[in-house]
Amino acid sequence: MKITNLHNMPDMLVRAVEREYIYRDKRYSITSLLEPQRIIALKRRYNDQIEQDITDCMFMLLGTKTHFELENIELKENEFVEDHLEYTFENGYTLSGIIDHYDDKYLDDYKTCKAYSLIFKSDYDKWKKQLQMGSYLAYKKDGKWRKKGRIVALIKDWNRLDAQSKSDYPKYPCQVINFDLGTPKQVEKMILEKFDMVIELEQMSDEELPLCTAEERFNKGTTWAVKKKKNKKASKVHDSEEEAKKHLENLEKDYPNEYEIEKREGQNLRCECYCNVNMFCSYYKSKYMKGEEK
Fold it and tell me: Which of 1, 75, 110, 134 is the Cys-Cys partner for 79 at CB 3.0 to 4.6 Å?
């Protein structure tokens, strides 16, 4: 992957990010294995052609700064921070990861995130799997299984007033989320299934790759708005066309021909704004690049 600097940011920022994108054959990081299948495959196939601007990597650098501070604390006995680990399985594939912190009992991962990630628990499943894979790598290093994992979430958009007034809002700018990591056997099975998936993906053409789900595309779904004709604002927005039609039928009794149904396609935010392989994706090209030169 090539990191561009279209807005003349300091060169050291570019160099700091570039070291994160060094791929080796049959070697996958923990985070890369947890991406959608199509993205996993396309990132490998087109690594030399993918471009991403340094301005799109700022939040990653914020997380890197946190990890740098961890590396410079005085450690207790059997305590490790920023430990680079990897393990190669019999199938020839290697799992790699940088473990933020672990000791004999706990394995921790520090995250910079937004408050909604905790309110809606949108990343909890991915966070648990990251901790499980990290614990597995530590287990392969020293034979000790850490059953307890913790995400230490540093909330970058935390607001004191929201914390005081909203019951579901994080009370503090730092929150610890605990996970039970299961057993080494369970986690090994999960990792090997991931690599079996990767092997299958490698045999597929770009068009055959599984499409990202609506959730993976950050799509909240298509809705149907009942609104007055020529108005932009909806009277009510429905999740199904059937509900919208019933609503319109009721309105027609008192206000004939005044209202209509407008279908609002769910926006694929990841595809349009956050995916750095979209220019190589057949789904994106067919949906957003019709009539353009491929």
Answer: 75
Rg of the chain, C-alpha, whole Å: 23
d(CA 12, CA 5): 11
Beta bridge pairs of residue 47: none
Distance between CA atoms of residues 233 and 227, nearest Å = 7
User: Within the chain, where are the H helices?
Assistant: 11-18, 30-33, 37-45, 58-71, 115-119, 124-142, 160-165, 184-202, 241-254, 269, 282-288
Q: Kindly report, residue by residue over 187-237, the tens digit of the pLDDT.
A: 999 999 999 999 999 999 999 999 999 999 999 889 999 999 988 899 999
Amino acid at 6: L
Picking from 206, 95, 112, the residue whose alpha carbon sits closest to that of residue 152 is 112
8 A C-beta contact, residue 139 and residue 181: no
Instruction: Kindly report the three-state secondary structure assignment for every residue of 215-240.
Output: CCCCCCCCEEEEEECCCCCCCEEECC
Cα separation, 101 vs 103, in Å, equals 7
Percentage with pLDDT > 90 across the chain: 71
CB 2 within 8 A of CB 50: yes
Angle between helices 11-18 and 58-71 (to 10 degrees): 80
d(CA 12, CA 293): 35
Which tens digit of pLDDT belongs to each residue from 5-23?
888 888 877 776 766 556 7
Rounded Cα distance between 80 and 103, Å, is 6
User: CA torsion 136→141→142→144, rounded to 10°?
Assistant: 0
Q: How far apart are CA 223 and CA 230, in angstroms?
A: 18
Residue with tokens 């209509």: 260
pTM for this model (two decimals): 0.83
